[in-house]
Design brief:
CATH class of the largest domain: Alpha Beta
Strand order of the largest sheet: 1-2-6-5-4-3-7-8-9
Pfam families: DNA_processg_A, DprA_N, WHD_DprA
Domain DprA winged helix: 309-358
Low-confidence stretches: 1-7, 302-309
Largest sheet: 9 strands, mixed
Protein name: DNA-protecting protein DprA
Structural class: alpha/beta
Domain Smf/DprA SLOG: 88-297
InterPro entries: DprA, DprA_WH, DrpA_SLOG, WH-like_DNA-bd_sf
Helix content: 40-55%
Number of strands: 11
Mean pLDDT: 89
CATH topology of the largest domain: Rossmann fold
Radius of gyration: 23 Å
Order of helices and strands: HHHHHHEHEEHEHEHEHEHEHEHHHHEE
Distance between the termini: 40 Å
């Protein structure tokens, strides 16, 4: 693939697009209006401010469009694109992801570090709480491994918590994963996932952003990037989320974009399950096993490579309903307490359960 995917665009037009892209007053829709009205970014950039005003756009002066920050930022982007494994996708070019191009406010420019070809492969988004519980992290990892093994690219936001667990699990089984940043690719956030992002790029996956390369973290940009996560994907799986979680924004955008929304239920006593429960009440598909996702997406996944389905121990099944003390498990299961304690020790050694604050929790999804 051409590094800038622009075989039919002149260097001057490419630079003009990069300059327009740096103007903070122009979002995706206004950028599209300019290109549609003037035919190219070069003409839009040189048009008088009155012409912009007549289109209902901010009358940005010619001086502002030629400012050192705009000019130098475009030059730095051109230098960035000259390096290996760094690409630019444009919404009106054939290499732009087809699903993403369907949304109303598709990013006019998309910077890609890694392999841009995987953006065209079938993707499932996985999102959830940044302050996820350990069982939530384990559930995210297990679903990501199985979905990646079934042939799906796992797409998420490279945030801490559920996002990071999903990305890492996909890599662990040799799958592909895409991280969508809420910052520029040269101003990476969160810093603790820089090594994860580097591993993704090195293993044939990708990290993408619609923002200029030097864009710093800004609170409003993270909800904005969520439309890209859902827009790239066939569906969005919410693993664990509170009512106020940004993951619910991604789910709402997915529904508006005509994507499927999946949610994993949890204990009614766990605050981080309430967002998923609300989504289910609103019509999201309740997911307990990977089959609840795959049954609606037959033909997209490689069934021959799907992960084997394990057998769930009865005690683990009880813990999926809610955390239990050892005594409560003995009562619920009808087994002697000594037998329950011995079995829990074995399950803990196998990594299936964990004890926190005197209560046992399941660490693997209920298939």
């Amino acid at each position: 693939m051409n590094p800038i995917n622009s075989s039919d665009i002149s260097p001057a037009e490419l630079e003009a697009r990069l300059r327009l892209h740096r103007l903070p007053e122009l979002g995706p829709k206004r950028f599209h209006v300019l290109i549609d009205a003037f035919g190219c970014a070069s003409k839009a950039l040189s048009a008088p401010a009155s012409a912009w005003r007549s289109l209902g756009l901010p009358a940005i002066s010619a001086e502002a469009r030629r400012s050192p920050k705009v000019r130098d930022g475009a030059s730095e982007a051109l230098a960035w694109l000259a390096r290996p494994a760094q690409h630019l996708l444009m919404w009106d070019h054939p290499d732009y992801p087809a699903l993403l191009a369907q949304i109303d406010d598709a990013p006019p420019l998309l910077f890609v570090a890694g392999d841009p070809d995987i953006l065209e492969k079938p993707q499932l988004a996985m999102v959830g709480s940044r302050r996820a519980s350990r069982p939530g992290m384990d559930t995210a990892a297990a679903f990501s491994r199985s979905l990646a093994s079934a042939g799906f690219v796992i797409t998420s936001g490279l945030a801490v918590g559920i996002d990071g667990a999903a990305h890492q699990a996909a890599l662990d089984v040799g799958g592909h994963t895409i991280g969508v940043l809420g910052t520029g690719l040269e101003n990476f956030y969160p810093q603790r996932h820089r090594k994860l992002a580097a591993a993704m790029i090195a293993q044939g996956s990708a990290v993408v952003s619609e923002f200029p390369l030097d864009t710093a973290p800004q609170a409003g940009n993270f909800p904005r990037r969520n439309r890209i996560i859902s827009g790239l994907s066939l569906g969005v799986l919410v693993v664990e989320a509170s009512i106020a979680s940004g993951s619910l924004i991604t789910a709402r955008l997915a529904a508006e974009q005509g994507r499927e929304v999946y949610a994993i239920p949890g204990s009614i006593h766990h605050p981080a399950a309430k967002g998923c429960h609300q989504l289910i009440r609103d019509g999201a598909v309740l997911v307990e096993t990977i089959e609840h996702i795959l049954e609606g997406l037959r033909g997209w996944q490689r069934l021959s490579h799907a992960a084997p389905v394990p057998v769930t121990h009865p005690l683990v099944a009880l813990l999926h309903a809610a955390p239990h003390s050892s005594e409560a498990l003995a009562i619920a299961s009808g087994r002697p307490l000594s037998q329950v304690l011995a079995t829990l020790t074995e399950l803990e050694l196998e990594g299936q359960v964990i004890c926190e604050s005197g209560r046992w929790l399941a660490r693997c999804p209920l298939w």
